[in-house]
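Ex. 9. Protein: YibE/F family protein.
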Amino acid sequence: MIIVLAAILAVLLYIVGGERGILTFLTLCWNIAVLSVSIVLISWGWEPITITFLSCLLICSATLFYQNGRSGKTYAAFFSVVLILLILVLPAYLLGLNSHIQGLNELMLREDEIMGLTPNININIVKIAVSMMITGLIGAATDTAMAISSAVYEVFRNNRQLHTMELFHSGIRIGKDVLGTTVNTLYFACIGESMMMFLLFKSYHYSFGRLINSKAFFQEFTDIIFSCLACILVIPLSAAITSFILRNPGKFKRLLDEDVLFLDPKE
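Predicted structure tokens for YibE/F family protein:
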């Protein structure tokens, strides 16, 4: 069934997106391969946060550069996501260390595939919890960063006279429109994924206090909160970095040599 669904996805991507759809499918396959390799490396004892950080960089670069080419907007989106990862890794580590959300929750321990197996796998579970939070936010952060940088890029393309602060404010205004739909998308994705968990809690007659203090609920809640934080913070970062790059192309000449916006018409 998985192969059939993957084939349907590939066909629909090609029909709707053409060549870009095929690139999207290949990028998705690459991202799955990167995540699979990172999981294997972590299981071999490699440092989880470092491996996760590097795998997120590979995923982000493939998603941005392979699908959209090398331009001012893709570099701005990439730099914004890297900064978001650097900003949120410490809060994620402190939360994972102090809130005891790491490890298997009470629902996972009752699953047939896990029941009877020891949860002791000789890996730092706090770092695994941090890795899960970082991996969970990379998709939403990349999507939001690309949306803002593309919008600012188009604004600048249509009016080259705008200054850095005017471009930045344009990005912020666009970001306010993007933010509402992005947060709702994350919220409904989390609710849809966790619906079975809520039904189980209802069947077990969990009180509201017991629900919000359960490990399973808190793990889901922290993932969506960190994803929302990443989307919120990446908007001003992406607007500022894109504005700066577009208004100072000479400082990024080596990065913008393929950007049609800055190609010399005589060449």
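Check your answer against this statement. The mean pLDDT is 84.
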